[in-house]
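Risk register update: the risk that structure generation would not scale has been downgraded. Supporting records follow, first protein first.
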Amino acid sequence: MAGAMPVPEIASYGGTGRQMNTLVGDNLEAARVKAQETFRAQKAAKPTLDQASIDVILSNARSHYAWLDRPVPDELLHQIYDLTAQGPTSMNTCPARFVFVTSPEGKARLAKSLKAKNIDKMMDAPVTAIIAHDLEFWRQLPFLFPHEDRRPHFEGKAEHSAETAFRNGTLQGGYFMIAARALGLDVGAMSGFSNQIVDEEFFADTSLKSNFLCNLGYADESALFQKLPRFTFDQACSYA
């Protein structure tokens, strides 16, 4: 047909319920070349972040517990997630799931899980994200990791699946905090709550489990105190 778009060369494999598609041949090679060219161009254009940017996301970043009465737009939450999702995970498992608690009703439900000293911190924040992970992340591997069927590595292996989900979901939680700071928000990660109550309140009858909470918004810096000490390289690092 004149003007028809070319159809990518795709290999399909797998039995019932395990159909997977992946690029092969010239299409696979073209995708690899494009990825390599993109990486080289990015490294050439900006090989490192400037110090001011590093200060924002890590060096001078702080955990915040008081917040300005300033809303966080939904569009910004979408941007934070989209940036977070670009961070690497093992086999591209991407197990993290995020619940943005913004409504009075949602805040009241979440408050049931918190220790008393943390309730005001959460209630005053414009957004509190529940950072969770999906224990059945592996069901999505045909989409996320189409090169070969890796589901047998996890299917029926609850302990291995839970460890993988927790480790990589926590990693994505770190990406999430850095992404939020990079896009102009302040964050305050929190433990001091009952994972069991959060899971019963928000994730009943699902395969999701909560990990930690993260308040998001624009900080009231007047509540800050001095930055606490950190270990030096020699105290925390070694060679083998």
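Supporting record for the second protein:
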Amino acid sequence: MKNETLPAFISPNDFLNHWQGHRSLTRKAIEAFPEDKLFSYSVGGMRPFSELALEMIHMAVPSVAGIITGEWKTFGESEAEEKPTTKTGLLKLWDESTEKLNELFPQIRIERFQEVEKAFGQYEGTNYALIFYCIDNEIHHRGQGYVYLRTLGIEPPFFWERG
């Protein structure tokens, strides 16, 4: 399929709202975890949900910042040195990145969505595809968290409750 510039089918604001709906749902999944399991529990050798959530945090704002500026750090270079060790600390980081996304996303110039770049020095594609990747990655890891919650006997939040 030829990559051609077409009129937008979704506004940047609606795109951000869609992403933030997923982030709201992932936050509910973090909240559903017992404190003692969030940082230690895993199934089948997968990472604990806290590490999956940190990966989502470390992708979101640096991706949008890279799209705005065209300058990309190596993935993980922007990460905080200190990892949270409590659910409260993780939720605080989550909320800070949510607010930062709300602040930065409107700064993306419309033409930047279609431009092709090599994000983090490793992912080449259009900038809008990178945002879809961030969303897809979050959905994938949230699904892992849902498996953890179910094996712990906890009903995960309904996937359609994105508000």
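The chain has one domain: 12-41+48-151. On this basis the risk owner (M.S.) recommends closing the item.
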